[in-house]
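ok posting inputs for the FE3-S4 cluster job
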Amino acid sequence: MSILKTVANNSLRPLKGEGKKLFIETYGCQMNAGDSEIVVSIMQQEGYRYTESIDEADIILINTCSIRDNAEQRIWGRLSEMRRLRKRKPSLIVGIIGCMAERLNEQLLESECGVDIVAGPDAYRDLPTLARTAEGGDKGINVELSKEETYAEIAPVRLDKNGVTGFVSIMRGCNNYCSYCVVPYTRGIERSRDPHTIVAEARTLFENGYREVTLLGQNVNSYRSGDVDFPELMAMVAEISPLLRVRFATSHPKDISDALLEVMARYDNICKSIHLPAQSGSNEMLKKMNRKYTREWYLERIAAIRRYMPDCAITTDLIAGFCGETEEDHAQTLSLMREVGYASAFMFKYSERPGTFSARHFEDDIEDGEKTRRLNEIIALQNSLSVASNEAEIGKLREVLVEGTSKRSDAQLCGRTSQNKMVVFDRHDHQPGDYVMLRITGCSSATLFGEVVEQ
Ligand code: SAH
Ligand code: SF4
Ligand code: F3S
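and the output
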């Protein structure tokens, strides 16, 4: 009944977009990149046409990030540039969507930059209606968070387009409430997407020539839908084809289980690379951060990873200068880094986010100059660890999945190893999507170089 009704409605109702052109600009993490693809899909169904040129856009959506203050500052800068575009095209609609929309909601409408639409991460189905409101001269706002929304049945319009590697969102929100983090407030409570829709989306990617999927969520290893937990979901996706590589991001150290490590070890096509954000090496800081594990627990999990997969690359996120961090706490972070020997890391200065537990209860007492010094020490150490990790690859045989042409030369291709390291090598007659066996012959701090091994 309800399906018939929708069809009838659709056939009578003119599409709202009427061929208007939509441009979307994305900041922040992969979740936002995935959401932009959902947004384009929703808007296209309403008759909007996607354009890659901002100058011909009738509607511009900016998908925003609130994770650190500098992320928001960048977006304010971008917003003020929208005024110039508006002068040229007074009918232009500008919308702010994503995490900053959720965090600031009405404040954005009041800004001088001229924002017409504000939509939070769970309100994207409402975007066509909000756009219509804005086209009528009013402001459209929806920042309602949902307990259920996963956009499960919406087929994303792939915008990244190397045609080889794609992302599949498996859950939304976060329940962890790390004390420094804004994400639980901007993205709401954790919910897992139906596993069958996940497998169907991954299979469609494979059938369209994609050879790698990354399963995405803020804390993927707490995925659960009915009887299906994350290890089981990984196995289901890995079973699609041995030619389809599977990765995931991000996992929380507190629940990286042996069951998951066992599944990862069992399937050759599950990549041997784990991003396991430590944040700090000091138990004192980990406790204040509400990370729910200790340094000892973390190191035991690293040992477990090495037991199951001696060849697995481990990467991390680190925060310098969290509230009350002493020199000794900082030294503990450096020693943790040495002990694990991270292949690479994302490293940040602590940035206080209004409304979070640490903003309400702790003092942001480390001076900016001091934060910078600690961060620089962390970065310098990581550079030497990255070089060491790359040098250890020299002489090894590694299979890469070719992603595209090297940035420096058309005669060379680039692809990633299972450990997620980028390798540049001579093209021969290979192409994106091929698996190629290479011998690693050299490296810089960021890239490996390899030679094709004839088989
Ligand atoms: N859900 C993922 C990552 C979320 S955000 C996880 O928990 O692993 C990515 C990274 O940003 C975090 O791992 C953390 O290192 C950093 N981050 C988050 N909030 C921050 C803040 N207030 N200041 C500085 N860095 C922050
Ligand atoms: Fe933020 Fe922690 Fe959730 Fe990651 S796990 S998104 S750091 S609250
Ligand atoms: Fe930023 Fe939101 Fe992702 S705050 S890091 S875009 S979840």
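notes: Residues 174, 176-178, 181, 183-184, 218-219, 252 surround iron/sulfur cluster (ligand 2) (CB under 6 Å). The chain is about 35% helix and 20% strand.
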